[in-house]
Write a structure and sequence with these properties.
Elements (H helix, E strand, L loop, with lengths): L1 H13 L5 E5 L5 E4 L9 E3 L9 H58 L4 E3 L5 E3 L2 H18 L2
Antiparallel strand pairs: 1-2, 1-3, 4-5
Length: 149
């Protein structure tokens, strides 16, 4: 948007030698144009021309603006990528914290409650024996080691 406005401004400087007419129509709307209105009730304005802004300088300015716009665009894309990466890291940290808390709660229940039951493949609950409890404790401790850093 900025680039469009600046280009329009520079273009207007290039054609500034032409006269500009100003008039107000019957509805009170002010108009500006390079051609006078058909009714002929217009004020002729002489635009101010900035010295040293010829076609070559205008091209240089436009090229600089194009480069600036592409740099801005690349910086914006990099910022968006960095924000997405940071959000993914925050999400992973939150998930890791949740898994750590679940593993600690599971290990605590294995240590505190002598009767531990698990669901089998058919959906039935069965009590675990000491060997299976030891395996569950070992798995919970490994998960804590991995997730609780």
């Amino acid at each position: 948007m900025r680039l469009t406005i600046i280009i329009a401004l520079l273009w207007s400087l290039a054609v500034a030698a032409a006269p500009v007419y100003k008039w107000i129509d019957s509805e009170g709307i002010t108009h500006y144009a390079q051609e006078p209105p058909p009714q002929g009730n217009a004020q002729s304005l002489v635009p101010q021309v900035t010295p040293g802004v010829g076609p070559e300088r205008t091209r240089e300015i436009l090229e600089g603006l194009r480069k600036s716009a592409s740099i801005d665009s690349a910086a914006r894309a990099k910022d968006q990528a960095d924000q997405a990466k940071a959000q993914a890291e925050r999400d992973e940290r939150a998930a890791r914290t949740r898994r750590c808390e679940e593993a600690r709660a599971h290990l605590e229940s294995l240590h505190n409650y002598p009767r531990v039951a698990v669901k089998d493949a058919q959906g039935e609950y069965r009590r675990v024996d000491d060997d299976e409890r030891a395996a569950l404790v070992k798995r919970a401790e490994a998960l804590i080691q991995k997730e609780c850093k």
